Amino acid sequence: MSPAIRVRPRRELTAARRPRAHRCWGHLVAAPLWPMHGANLGTLLRTCDAVGACLAVPPWRWVDEAVARGNTLRRPSCVHRVGNPLSWLAAERSAGAQILGVELAEEAVRLADLPPARHRTIVVLGHEATGIPAEALDTLDAAVEIPMVGTGLSLNVAVAGSLVLYKLAGLL
């Protein structure tokens, strides 16, 4: 009797995915612009590859080291350095990008109600302890809330960012 679940071979999985890497600065960008933990950056980088997104990070030495350590794919990934987060977000918004913050806020869109991104979308992720800085909240077009039923107030940056990226990519 054969098993009810068929495991797809690696060759078949590879053939079903995109034939080449996505173009830099594609329509989805994860932006953990105020990171606290390097491990989260590696996890987000892997998610960015999975959904065809780019990662935008501050140009700090420890961030570069964390991204390099976290690149378990061992091939070049789409990572860009952002010197001044507020200026960069304002420029992206002026150029027509939608700026979404993953934050607990009034009138936030629940993750389940978030439609797939149809044009360039920046997913802003705040500091693990303090969230998105107050001065950056004005650059957001909307906030996304991830509902929780447990006692914690939030998920870590890598998990929250991954959930939102998958939803925006239309993969959930």
Describe the protein.
It is a single chain. The chain has six helices and seven strands, in the order αβαβαβαβββαβα. Strands 3-2-1-6-4-7-5 form a seven-stranded parallel sheet. It has one domain (33-168): SPOUT methyltransferase, trefoil knot domain (Alpha/beta knot). The radius of gyration is 17 Å and the shape is globular. Helix 2 (38-51) packs parallel to helix 6. Helix 3 links the parallel strand 2 and strand 3 (79-81). It has helices spanning 10-16, 38-51, 61-70, 85-94, 134-137, 157-168, and strands spanning 28-32, 54-57, 79-81, 98-102, 109-110, 121-125, 142-145. The model has no long low-confidence stretch (mean pLDDT 87). It has 172 residues and is α/β, with parallel strands linked by helices. Residues 37-166 form the tRNA/rRNA methyltransferase SpoU type domain. It comes from Plantactinospora alkalitolerans. Keywords: Methyltransferase, Transferase.
What's the short story on this structure?
With 172 residues, the protein is an alpha/beta fold. The chain has one domain (33-168): SPOUT methyltransferase, trefoil knot domain (Alpha/beta knot), CATH 3.40.1280.10. It has helices at residues 10-16, 38-51, 61-70, 85-94, 134-137, 157-168, and strands at residues 28-32, 54-57, 79-81, 98-102, 109-110, 121-125, 142-145.
